[in-house]
Amino acid sequence: MDLHARELSRNGVRIKAEEKPLKVLELLLKNPGDVVSRTALREKLWPNTTVAYEQNLNTAVNKLRVLLRDSARRPRFIETLPGRGYRFVASVDRPRRASSAMRKTILVVLPFENFGDSADQKYFAQGLIADLISQLAQLNPQRLGVIARTSAIQYMGTKKSIRDISRELKAHYVIEGSVRRERKRIRITVHLIGAKDETHLWSATYDRVLGDILSVQHNVSRRIGRALASELPL
To answer: DSSP character for 14?
Structure first.
């Protein structure tokens, strides 16, 4: 399992797999030998789903077992603990890489699209980006490298593709978003994108009432940082 590329392979051959089974496997691999509860899986993989969650999780685990050629009755990889969750029971080998630079996941936060012309809204968007970069840079500096704001700001209004930007900055993941304002309310939309195939891996929307701007910026950037801590391979 390549956590950076989110790819599964067997004997050097890539196995085609859907997103949710791979995310289940990623969470199990991050906690080998420990029980990952169904509640934890729900919060990380289906945070906004209340209907058909049980069926979605069971389907994802069953698909994962097919990929791994595993059996629920005689598990070699994934053990089911009825009513509790799942546990990865095989040994896990984490290969060491040659340098710290190779071990790092590189992330860039692009300037957010600003749906508005006011100077106040532009100031808010710039401050939000600064706070968000600061939050992300503190997650795991040894494993996550966050591109400096001064390097990312050159892409404001650019027509370049995510693939081109990530190649120029050598980034594995890209965060992009937008800021909209309607009177006293502001909406912040954020997307995490995999640079390799330009696919959306995570997204969220935050609606806030504008009062103390600094508090709103700090609160939203902290929430984004917490959410991405479980989405990025740290």
So the answer is: E
